[in-house]
Amino acid sequence: MFKKSILPSIVLPLLLISSPSAFATVILDFSPSAQTVPLSGQASVDITASNLQNEYIGAFDFDVSWDSSILSLASVSFGNALGGGLLSFQAENTNNSMGTSSLTELSFLSNLTSLQTGNTNIILATLIFDTLSTGQSALALAGNISGGGFLSDENGNLLAASANSGLINVVTVSAPETLFLMGIGLLMIFGIRRRNESDDNSVSQHYL
User: Fold this and answer.
1) How far, in Å, CA of 66 to CA of 96, rounded?
2) Dihedral of the CA atoms 139, 16, 77, 141 (nearest 10)?
3) pLDDT at 8 over 90
4) pLDDT the model gives residue 119
5) What's the Rg (C-alpha) of the chain?
6) What is the C-alpha separation between 193 and 5, in angstroms, rounded?
7) What CATH number does the domain containing 21 carry?
8) Cα–Cα nearest to 73, from 83, 65, 61
9) Which residues is 42 bridged to in the sheet?
10) Confidence of residue 173 (pLDDT cuts 50, 70, 90)
11) Using CA atoms, how far apart are residues 78 and 91, in angstroms rounded to an integer?
12) Helix (H, G, I), strand (E, B) or coil at 44
């Protein structure tokens, strides 16, 4: 795991950021954007990029934040759209007590057409959270490139991008509906049995 203090010295010299691309704004989303999960369970959420408009993402660097009293980040896995393995630099720096994680990836590939089509959604990373308590935790992204940017293209040019927020709702799980239905069924069986016993008593008294 890399310390955030050394990330700029490693990554920023490699990101030869110039003026933002003239293409449309890339949209960063949490997917699903909102979900409800049980306490003591886990929540999985992807960070996706869409509206690429024939652009290719060569690097990203941003912070993810959440409510540390409700969620704890258990694991992070990077997508393969930037190469992964020996084909890209990847770094994660998570502070669960603060509810933040810095995620960085820089592709070493000069041509990303084999990994990105330039117009479909791509997954940058997948986060898995453990749930700590009930409540609603917002998820947010903050860019770290060139004064707040999120992404750059394969040539190091800053990509115009905006980020939407997400939401994870942690709830207490009540008794399963099946148990409720079983209880109703047992009550019905008990009622039928009592009715049969009452009918049997009536027949016995008739013959007496």
Assistant:
1) 9
2) 0
3) no
4) 80
5) 27
6) 74
7) 2.60.40.680
8) 65
9) 130
10) confident
11) 9
12) strand
Closest CA to 129 of 18, 35, 19, 27: 35
CA distance 91 to 79: 13
CB 123 within 8 A of CB 84: no
The dihedral over CA atoms of 62, 104, 13, 115, expressed in degrees to the nearest 10, equals -110
H/E stretch holding 119: none
Mean pLDDT taken over the chain: 84
Domains: count for the chain: 2
What share of the chain in percent tops pLDDT 70?
73
Tokens standing for residue 4: 């955030």
10 and 60 in a single domain? The answer is yes
Report the run of H or E that residue 159 belongs to, with start and end. strand 158-159
DSSP 114: T
Would you call the peptide bond into 32 cis, given omega within 30 degrees of 0 as the criterion? yes
Residue (of 86, 76, 122, 77) closest to 107 by Cα position: 86
132 in Cβ contact with 66 (< 8 Å): no
14-36 confidence digits (pLDDT tens): 444 444 545 589 999 999 999 99
Domain assignment of residue 205, given as a range: 175-208
Q: Are residues 117 and 193 in the same domain?
A: no
Cα torsion angle, 144, 75, 91, 79, sign? negative
